[in-house]
Amino acid sequence: MSDPQADPTPLRRALVAIDRLQAKVDAAERARHAPVAVVGIGCRLPGGVDGPGAFWDLLHAGRDAVTEVPADRWDIDAFYDPDPDAPGKIATRHGGFVDDVRGFDPLFFGIAPREAMAMDPQQRLLLEVVWEALEHAAIAPDSLAGSRTGVFVGMTATDYSYVQFDLAGLAGLDQYYTSGVAHSAASGRVSYTLGLNGPSVSVDTACSSSLVAVHLAVQSLRAGESTMALAGGVNLMLSPQNSVVLSRFHMMAPDGRCKAFDASADGFVRGEGCGVVVLKLLSDAVAAGDRVLAVIRGSAVNQDGASSGLTAPSGPAQEAVVRAAVADAGVAPHEVGYVEAHGTGTALGDPIEVQALAAALGDGRAAAAPVMVGSVKTNIGHLEGVAGVAGLIKAVLVLQHGEIPPHLHLREPNPFIDWGSLPVVVPTSATPWPGVDGRRVAGVSAFGFSGTNVHVVLESAPAPPQEPAAPAVEPAPVDAAAAPLPQLVGVSGRGPGVARQVASALAAALDPTWSLADVARTANVGRARLSHRATFVADSVASLRERLERYASGDSAAAAAEGAPAGTDPPKVAFLFS
After folding, report:
1. In the chain, what is the straight-line distance between the N-terminal and C-terminal CA atoms, in Å?
2. Three-class SS of residue 389?
3. What is the full DSSP assignment across 19-46?
4. What is the largest CA-CA distance in the chain?
5. H helix count then E strand count, the chain
6. pLDDT tens column, 90-125
7. Is 570 helix (H, G, I), strand (E, B) or coil?
8. What is the phi/psi pair of residue 281, to 5°?
9. How many CB atoms lie within 10 A of CB 254?
10. Which residues are the active-site residues?
11. Tens-digit pLDDT profile for residues 257-288
């Protein structure tokens, strides 16, 4: 007698096949909307911001980082004219500038000094901030060679090409010029330097570039072509040409302030900087034990199409991209409690953006719970190709701290926005944000002047998994004389001077509440092991700080060991006759 399970009927075989196909469809759908974790941040922004901590300090304090144009960029006295139609002149004296764009250690990245001279400082800054973002994620940059790590970089400025022509002319250009200024080389150089084999893409969609780069990184992770992604953008103002053009376009605010949503909004002020986020699928980040800063739930990109003008914003397109991102995120519109707006501060763009947000996020929203809106451009200016990722990093910090920082320069709300009937409010002072039913969800918008719009939806990081409760046992007797378990902590640099700088920075960052074991793990595993190393033995955070400070001040005896690792060959000398 035959077993019916061993010899299934055609109907049973068909049902099994359908179940398998449905399981594949379900798995594909889950992958298409898989949440993505932000596990690291690097940023250099106006106001001396050199990392996410300094950025939050600036935002929380409501500080305006816009200054007059530094003398090492261009002579603003020679270029300034309050008449925006004056040929060859700039109708504002201001901008948001980062510190020291000249400083760069090419040998740290294995770059010859001659080649570094031809490299756009944007490429140099990007390399440094990528390294810092990976270290913030506790991922050693030198551990990624051969990995399918993708690099997605928004980049729009071409100022260094003007600078090189001005300094050297055609006769002074050498073989490094093209790779030094090409946008494609910015992402490619990151991949080459770190040995990454994932996609390497440079993006130019004008002011939406870096947030489009984040969107592409999310898609790459979900598709499985990248196992980790570095996404962001870089922008530096090195010559006056673009400022002259934007001034003639009447896009620049004469007072040098982005007054988003204010009745006096009359244009933006230019800014510069670099921002990079390290992304992984949330499931991969949790499995690796990474610190999750926030979760990207969804994103979307579209184009204005045939609107009222190439550079004119389109309300319907903005509304559509927000709706698409919210749908991709799988959240209800009313659950989005905060939006980091594009918010450049223009009489035309501000009303269109607010109305589009209200239309896209108003469904099901209680009158007592309007969506809060802000714009980091009021703090640091419009960073152009970096604007989107700067807004994204701000949104991550807002989610982490549960607080909306003050939106600056809003004194009289724009009368062309119907504030009374739209479910939108702009906080001008620090505002606690508990979220909707305890859930904090934020959106970030960026719109390119050529018509490319992008919106990203983020949520607070999930609570870390609880350790299972240990079974009740009789406590062992405590030896009061037993010393705390010592830990080994290493620092390194490309020479003793740099190693001491690293030790000084670590000492300054140490918090007495931190776990010494966690500090040791991050220092030993989450940092590159460079040629000059120093090792410290400590039994508390306080004793570690004391040893680091002594070493940083020149006392080598504070380290348990110092120098190049045993067995390391000295650098070899090579001669090249090309």
Report:
1. 84
2. helix
3. HHHHHHHHHHHHHHT--EEEEEEEEEBT
4. 101
5. 18, 18
6. 999 999 999 989 889 998 999 999 899 999 999 999
7. coil
8. -55, 140
9. 16
10. 207, 342, 382
11. 999 999 999 999 999 999 999 999 999 999 99
